[in-house]
Amino acid sequence: MAGKILSSHTEATKSEMVPQQRPLMPVHIFNAAIKGDTDYLVQCLGLEEREEVKVTIRASQSAPQQVEEEHETVQFGLGSATHFGDNLLHLLISRRHNELALKVFTKDMSLLKAHNNKLETPLHNAAKVGNKEVILSLIGLSSSTVKDALGETNENEDTALHVAAKHNSMGVISELMKLDPKATYKKNKQGFTPLYIATVEGHTSLVEAMLQVDTTLACIQFSDGTFPVHIAARMGNEDLVEHFLREYLDYANLLDSCGRNLFHMAAEQDDSDVFTTVFALAKDDIPQISQMVESMINARDYEGNTPLHLAAMKGHGSVMRAIWDKLNHDQAALLQNRKGKTAFNLSFDQVWDTTDKLDRSKINNYVEEKGCYFTPEWFDDVMSPYQNKLERTQVIGLGSVLITTVAFAAAFTIPGGYNADNGAPILGKRFMFRAFILANTFAFIQAFQSLFIIVHSSLDYDIEDLHLEYAVYKFLSAASCMVIAFGLGSYVMLAPVSLPIAIIILVVTLLIGSPALFPVIMMEKSLVKRFNSSIADTTYNIPYMIGILTMPMILIFCLPVLSLL
């Protein structure tokens, strides 16, 4: 047929599957499919026999030629595809025009196995949007065709079940599993099964629904050597872990390729909620679970590490405390891995390496008093100050970036704007305007210093406590100056309109901004004391503290006076 334009198609890579080349879909058919225009597509593609068409054809002398042309038009419309390779079924199923999709499917069932440029079939699209209704209808029309299409894979070698698992399409995956249970075990290019994907994505209800259809899936080992319960524990999905333990009471015997159980996984990922959930189950008077917990918490992997060893290596204090409280303390202190290390030895090494050199005396004092054993003091006094250092660094860094960005923008979008003639600030000669510029500048400089300290110190992959404290010091000073700058900017803008409101805003911001410096004073005292305690004790008197507190105010409000002289 003249005028056919072939759509572009991508080559399949490792699968060596190439979508069948199809003529480019006419615009009028594409628009009708998108809108779900049933009458137009039925008439255009002959999806239903129309009585008036039969009468016209009988009355026409050129009936054979007209029938041939109409048949060719219908076949062209059904066999056409978009630039992305989507045929009519792809489009209709994705937009849930299900009645039209069933008419097209009845007319040409081969379209259900046709691939687009990403090697996706219409069944993949149904799984992606969770179109359970069309799946049920297609199965009712021809279950064998749907079963054949279920084996088709996309460019990632995902079947429709893989796609349904990723997009949490519970209704779709249940019906397709019933149609072909074996398809549930098929792996994609990464070696993942649909159950693995659903577990990693945290789709708890979907995993439970899949296990209701096929209970043996819970004990199928994945390609990485793990079982579903291990993935649930690794992802911190305590609800799914609880489901597995209640339904499968022999899960303590399931080990991954490294000989680790679900407690090893949770300990390595710093998820104390998994332990809390499982320990609560053990208290529910379920003897099998209590025995399982006892077995798993003392189990060693192939390197001799218990869950407590793994948590100690990572410095996961909350998990270590949860495990230690459950263990026989004497036994836990003596257990060694294959390298001869106890859990305390590993925790000591981890805390020592992540502690500032100036504070290691606390660790040495603990060992001298308590020995190489865990006690509540180890978790509360030694580990706690350091285990959240990364989170604190990230928060201070993010806050510094925010202040730097706002201050930078405020320097070029100043209150009152610029003079169109010479580009000078319109309010540039006002005292409060100059005070605003200074406060904004101090905020920018100190926030940048805080950010610079964090970035520079983190180049060694571990920011020292001294540097972190100084970064916090600069951040709090910058925050105080930013609040004061806001008050000054508001005063400049509102004073000509409503002086009382402008004064109120300025006073409130000064009252809010100044107290923010009190933590700065105490932090500076701590910093000075690190270098020379006598200096800190003698210099930090009331006048000195007042001077530190009022210094930003003095600079912000006195320097503009000098500039006016």
Automatic annotation (TrEMBL):
Entry keyword set: ANK repeat, Membrane, Repeat, Transmembrane, Transmembrane helix
Membrane topology: Multi-pass membrane protein
Compartments where located: Membrane
ANK repeats: 190-212, 303-323
TM ranges: 395-414, 435-455, 475-494, 501-522, 542-562
UniProt source species: Rhynchospora breviuscula
Membrane keyword on record: yes
Protein name stated in the entry: PGG domain-containing protein
Region forming the signal peptide: none
